Amino acid sequence: MKFNTGESGEVDLRDVVWRYEIAVPLRDPVRFPQFYLDSWPTIAWDCGFDVAPESLYSRVTGKETSQEKI
């Protein structure tokens, strides 16, 4: 992932995909990459599961932040 702060890195979402029932379809490696950015912009999937950019930023950088800084 690359953020508008210039920071970038990879994020592993296996833990959340296996934690939440709504994410069960994303356990299929064919479906997982079929995401889109919604209007917030949040990474989302057609099954209704999404991951907020703040969460992704924190996972990539190890920093806590507010939405305005991303």
TrEMBL record:
Top-rank taxon, per record: Bacteria
Pfam families named among the record's database cross-references: DUF2442
SUPFAM superfamilies, A to Z: NE0471 N-terminal domain-like
InterPro entries: DUF2442, NE0471-like_N
Protein name: DUF2442 domain-containing protein
Organism: Candidatus Kentrum sp. LFY
